[in-house]
Amino acid sequence: MAYCNTVTTRQLIEKDCMGWPAEEQARWLALFDPEDPLAGRPWVRQTAYQCAGVYSRYLACVRRLGMPDAVTPDGLRAFILACERQNNVPRTIAGYVAALLKIVRLVHRRSGTEIAWLCATVQRLDEAAAETPKKKNSHVVDALALYGRGKELILRAQRLGPDAGWRSIQMYRDGLWLCFGLNVPERLRALAGTRIRDIDVEARLARYGPETMKAKVESLRTYRKEVGDFLDEWLTVFRQKYDPGHDCVWIAKGGGPASAAALYMAMRKATGDLVNGGVSPHRFRDAAATFLVQAGPEHAPLATPVLGHRSERMTRHYFETADKIKASRETAAFMASGEELAAKAARAETRSTVALSPHRRRATSRRIT
After folding, report:
1. Which CATH number fits domain 138-320: 3.30.1330.10, 3.40.50.1110, 1.10.443.10, 3.90.79.10?
2. CA-to-CA distance for 58 and 48, rounded, in angstroms?
């Protein structure tokens, strides 16, 4: 994750609103200035950074067309058309317009009937987007396959042992990252910043403080015993090989804390053959929720609170994904059985020993003279 998306400095806040009208710049700084103890900071850094970026793009678009620096119906139509020309999918465009609505409410201080048209537009776009799958959903992620890959890496690292050097230690780290992330489906920032002091290995609990969470609400997670055993071995054997002097669970080569970007790339590489291009850490959340639905429809409502979503609309998505995984497995099994039946039919048709046992050679008879 980019630096500007995880920390707050006055320089970055000023960069957020660079090019905005002066009054709006002043309002933005008053809301988010980290050096001002009275600043309200109504949004977490990620939300502020992303919404500011969308508004800057909107202003650049309307200015190119000679339109005023304001969110208007004509300006919004022009912005949406520009997004479509850039091949943005409906879900992305809906997200952009929702971000503009947040800016209008917070920075422009407009509400009620003034922006009723914008609220209605956001709702219509959201409904249209719900009918369009996200790009990331073109490949279904199977939680069991991801967990299996993680465990495979751990077992390989165990066979090599920590004395084999960074190769085995990184292998264990990446495998544990997969297994732990599926059991603790937090966002990348929280997972990457996991601290030893926030983990109770015996109770199998992991605590994430409000400062690491997008919603600024503390999260308490538990994980299965096998993952707890792997985590204990990582902390006491493999990680300890470097004797790091910091509290971060995940280490980089040399023993220093591993960055979120490094862990992101490591996961993509470790899962490259499971999904084209690899799996991003955010897919832990999708995979975990989909697995709940796969385990039984009665567990589907748990997906919303487990992931911290406010809308149950996401649960419907996990139903669809679970159905895709089930269909994929059934298709593969059907094809495998069909191939076996075809092979048996071919062998029966030839009525030969070789056809019935293709790996067994015929005995060569010797002529007795």
Report:
1. 1.10.443.10
2. 15
